[in-house]
Amino acid sequence: MSIELGKLKVLVVDDQSLVRTLVSQALVSMGVKADLISQAPDGSTAMRVLGMRQVDLVLCDVEMQPMNGMDLLKEIRCAHTANPSNLPFIFLSGHADRNNIEVALKLNVDGFVVKPPKPVDVEKAIGLAMKRTRPDIDPFRYYEVDTGTDYDHKVFRRLFEMREQGEEAAQQETVTLLSARADSVLAADLRSKSGHLLLPRGAVISANQLAVLKDFSDRYGVTELIIEPVPDADSPQSAES
Question: For a FRET experiment, which of 6, 49, 81, 158 has its CA 20 to 30 Å from that of 199?
Answer without folding.
Answer: 49
